[in-house]
Amino acid sequence: MSTNNVLRVSQSVRLASSSDPQQGDGKPPVGAPTVKFARRTLSGRYVSYSRDDLDSDFGSTDFEKEFTNYHVQIPPTPDNQLMDPVISAKVEEQYVSNSLFTGGCNSVTRAHLMDKVIESETSHPQMAGAKGSSCAMSGCDSKVMRDERGVDILPCECDFKICTDCFSDAVKFGGGICPGCKEPYKTTELEEMVNNDVEGRLQLPAPLGMSKMERRLSIMRSQKLTRSQTSDWDHNRWLFETKGTYGYGNAIWPTENTGDGENGQPSELTHKPWRPLTRKLKIPAAILSPYRLLIFVRMVALGLFLAWRVRHKNEDAIWLWGMSVVCELWFAFSWLLDQLPKLCPVNRATDLAVLKEKFETPTINNPSGKSDLPGIDVFVSTADPEKEPPLVTANTILSILAADYPVEKLSCYVSDDGGALLTFEAMAEAASFANLWVPFCRKHGIEPRNPESYFNLKKDPYKNKVRPDFVKDRRRVKREYDEFKVRTNGLPESIRRRSDAYHAREEMKAMKRQREVANDDPIEPIKIPKATWMADGTHWPGTWLNPSSEHTRGDHAGIIQVMLKPPSDEPLFGNTEEGRPLDFTDIDIRLPMLVYVSREKRPGYDHNKKAGAMNALVRASAIMSNGPFILNLDCDHYVYNSEALREGMCFMMDRGGDRLCYVQFPQRFEGIDPSDRYANNNTVFFDVNMRALDGLQGPVYVGTGCLFRRIALYGFDPPRSKEHRSGCCSCCFPQKRKNQAAVASEETRALRLGDYEDDEMAMSTFPKKFGNSSFLIDSIPVAELQGRPLADHPAVQYGRQPGILTAPRELLDASTVAEAISVISCWYEDKTEWGERVGWIYGSVTEDVVTGYRMHNRGWKSVYCVTKPDAFRGTAPINLTDRLHQVLRWATGSVEIFFSRNNALFASSRMKILQRVAYLNVGIYPFTSFFLIVYCFLPALSLFTGQFIVKTLNVTFLTYLLLITLTLCMLAVLEIKWSAIELEEWWRNEQFWLIGGTSAHLAAVLQGLLKVIAGIEISFTLTSKSAGDDEDEEFADLYVVKWSSLMIPPITIMMVNLIAIAVGVSRTIYSTIPEWSKLLGGVFFSFWVLAHLYPFAKGLMGRRRRMPTIVFVWSGLLAITISLLWVSINPPSGSSSQIGGSFTFP
């Protein structure tokens, strides 16, 4: 017998599992848990949230037994009257947006209705916790129905406030009489009252008899897949021949040719010249041709030089010659790996006017001119509010919400991997401030749209501003932002005081209950766990300030809160109502959807750090909004160019864009010292290496500022993969097509989009790959279709029909959010391919590089989008120790890649040869540290011994050295020309290459070897950040010296070379037969080493030449050790002729 556990608790929703099996066809299998879902309103009625049980075609008995089958049952209630579907959906969405959903493994899913999210009042109707008037009926405490502006809907002229339930009762059972004035209602249709502001809007009818899940993807109910003459899956033909529907809403297609162009297409499309969204800007031949020639010349020179070095040994110091030759061979190999992928650099440009014309201009397929752009889900990740200040994250969120992209197509998800209430309330404060900031940006065209950066601009803020009220508006918004900053910075103290007050109240209640029970017996002190309390007076389900069971950083429930509910489909313009701070007349005041997500964490599970958090967001967003594109940003990287999302979409929507897995934007940084002492801007990498890779298969993924195609993250092969077989070198040596039945390797095996006749989209295997969520599985083909370019030209294959994305999205319901809670639970990825072939890849510190490598290995391409102004900006550590630890983490990830199956040596034939060389260099470059350290000590050894790497400085050696040096300098000049970087930036990169190579890279290699050989994992932890004497001073952190063991090798190299120069000069001066050539050679290379280490030495000095004690200690110990070693090797004698003479080891 089954049991329906409907928990009758006010303001809560619970999902409970039933253990009784149900038999028969269409019933869940034996042992499968069943989910019951309902809630009781404040007025006493039971409102059921249903998700129709879909009889899945792709399921099988084995899958159903192995994976949990979720469905929803509606408990019968006698007073549960049928309500208009439009009204009930809006009521439910309002409820969902005001509820905090929690749940996870072995726990029920609850939806706690939040009376308020933050201490301050909320005014925007989309925001969680938005207030509304209460029903005036006696005994009813429900809220009055509100419109999209948050204004109460009052059906009678007497303004009697009545809720939806009571109004329905008055119409059905009260004769349509108003309970307030006792006069008949003039309008008794709720839908008419709600939709007065959207009269004339085109509503696409839903097919009768279809459930919500069936509407999401009717392709799963269609007959055999339609194929074109090329044996490929033809979506356009399927749409027209089967009248299929896709996605949110229902797309209705014409059954007859309504145009007068070719093939029934409108003449506007066939006769209008097709314009591309992007164009490739090739590097001028006057720069690129000499650049390639110099690379070839230097390769020949290096080969001849190394051959000469091998043949001409230095018999007097064979050990010195041998070490130098080995190092030079490795340097030549490393230079080739770095230089060869730079043979084909390109620049790209976008045309935003064409994008607007194609997607946001009225056409025959889109008469209303509504945006036909695909949706974008933006992911922002944060983990620790102490290391990542919530104010920084809040500014990033505000810049995303204000981005210039269709509001209804944009959704923002914040991943709080620490489950901190501080981050939660900071995001709520940001959502509240967005009510003012976002319309202000739209009204006055503000750039950048990060309030902290905008108000700190040093340029004239009034330039090009023409509205007369700009000064007044800016002054008001600046004051509001200052108050927002104060509230956000005061949240830690506010949360602590609130929690203390509630804890004291709970203790008093417990003591009172104890006294009532104990009577005259002695009372023992009561210990109550000190909880963290939310603003509405309930326990925070995440991490508590005082950790307790199930409330620690690694042990808490999953949490989802819709901070800003999905906006309405039509623009919502502001007005001049009293009480509004600014006049937003004719300005769209809608805000994009904002969702707070904290995935479930439990002891005993490997949560896979950032990669696991991103995969949880991928699954949750697929269920809630399912944007076909995903933009991921770090919490300190904000949108600097409001049109950046449109620029990235130009590449995705252009012809051939369906083969792009991601668009990578360069990382730009703020707060860097003007001299960029430690090469924090990484301009050589972002403006030289990445542009060069863009001419191959595409740039690598660098962890932030990347616009992904969702279907590529799911592990699918690119479309038409059989037509694009790169082979070893597709340009010169095309490969024969292999038998498609050949089994792919475990590393490259991926899902198919149905390119082959015998390899359709096998949805029956999806549960094992993606998990047991049918919502998630059904969303995959929807995202694939919506992410296609427009079929607006005969040359565009497999595109989507224009206008299908103009249909309004479905409203959020509680069952959808409950499903999102289930997919972020800690157990969901068990026995699936998440982290292995699907989503962000696990197993490496640099999961970003591995994830991009897997996509390129499957044949996808990527592009590099450089915008003016910069697309995104962030922060970077300017402190020496922080910078070294950052480089250490990157190098450690590269070593892990080298010793894993993601090594480019094992890449598939779909990856181009030069792209493979670039990825091989990613895994090999840290190993250069061994040879670099040896080479940095060679000048000192040469000066100590009086020998040199060659027997004599003859003309041949000097000629080779001059040729190699000149070609390197000329290559640098040409790189500066085509990449538009500065010479100082190139030199800073060279300096930090040696600094990082002699410190962080060496530690990373040692750590990787210990992990591979001995299984020992070593973590280099950062010390707590400290500020300078003057915290308000700009770049104060630059002068802070924090000791780290990574500093030991560079310090040793500097001290040894300085002492060696002094010893060499002394020997030569006082020698009977001075050997000036060997001295000059050794001193030249020693100065070369010291010149590269100059920023490191300057960083050790701190501000005003101050140096920490530990530096003096190490310097003294090293100087004493080397001096004693020198005295023991060459003891002083009475004869002056022996001073500086040759010596032999005892």
Automatic annotation (TrEMBL):
Biased composition (Polar residues): 1-22
Residues involved in Mn(2+) binding: K610, D634
An individual GO BP term: response to cold
Domain of life according to the entry: Eukaryota
Main location: Golgi
UniProt-annotated stretches for the region Disordered: 1-34
Active site annotation, chain numbering: D417, D848
Alphabetical UniProt keywords: Cell wall biogenesis/degradation, Glycosyltransferase, Golgi apparatus, Membrane, Transferase, Transmembrane, Transmembrane helix
Transmembrane segments: 291-310, 317-337, 924-945, 957-980, 992-1010, 1051-1070, 1076-1097, 1109-1129
Subcellular location: Golgi apparatus membrane
Membrane topology reported for the UniProt record: Multi-pass membrane protein
Binding site for UDP-alpha-D-glucose: S381, K387, E388, D417, K609
Keyword Metal-binding: no
One Gene Ontology cellular component: Golgi membrane
GO molecular function: cellulose synthase (UDP-forming) activity; mannan synthase activity
Pfam families: Cellulose_synt (PF03552), zf-RING_4 (PF14570)
Family, per entry: Belongs to the glycosyltransferase 2 family. Plant cellulose synthase-like D subfamily.
The protein, known as: Cellulose synthase-like protein D3
Organism: Zingiber officinale
